[in-house]
Write a structure and sequence with these properties.
Layout lengths: L1 H8 L5 H21 L3 H20 L10 H19 L18 H9 L4 H8 L3 H7 L2 H11 L2 H5 L12 H11 L10 E4 L4 E4 L15 E4 L1 H6 L4
Antiparallel strand pairs: 1-2, 1-3
Amino acid sequence: LLQLIAKSQLTSLSGAAQKNYFNILDKIVQKVMEDQYNPRLIKDLLQDLSSTLCILIRGVGKSVLVGNINIWICRLETILLWQQQLKNLQMNKQVNNGLTLSDLPLHMLNNILYRFSDGWDIVTLGQVTPTLYMLSEDRQLWKKLCQYHFAEKQFCRHLIPSEKGHIDWKLMYFALQKYYPIKEQYGDTLHFCRHCSILFWKDTGHPCTASDPNTCLMPVSPQHFIDLFKF
């Protein structure tokens, strides 16, 4: 949701929404700096945000941004500061004398890789050990990933053969990612009940009064959530 706002909705934010948005970003950055959890996602978000802001600030004469231009320039400087802090982030080496990822059998490591839905996560995990790198280069793994995210007619248009004549599914995945959106996957999702006209988190649920509540539920993606506020 934050990334979609950064890419396309900044010009529609009110002054209060701007403050809330950047306060949330500040909390996320500080949280990542503290626990070092998943810094790549916030780096990508800040890169999208800074790119969009640079373009919009150049169009200041057209009044494309709500609020004083000096405030937005200050916010852009804050984003650049956050990016520098994340760039300088030193990941602490975990000291643990117990069982590690490398101690797991090959079939278990392979099973873990097959549960990833993001190609960059697979590439990153493959950099941990030579064994994981070997498993992360498996053609079948990348083929399954392509089939999960893209329709057959989509990757048939962009077949990339390797030197041996086989389809290079890893290159295919990253090539297709440039042309088509990948399937969205979240730990928890918003749902809308058509019977009660209520938004709720799927894991939390809500006391629906319909005779068959499951027939009334509709998942709400981040883009759909933003669209609910368009008039």
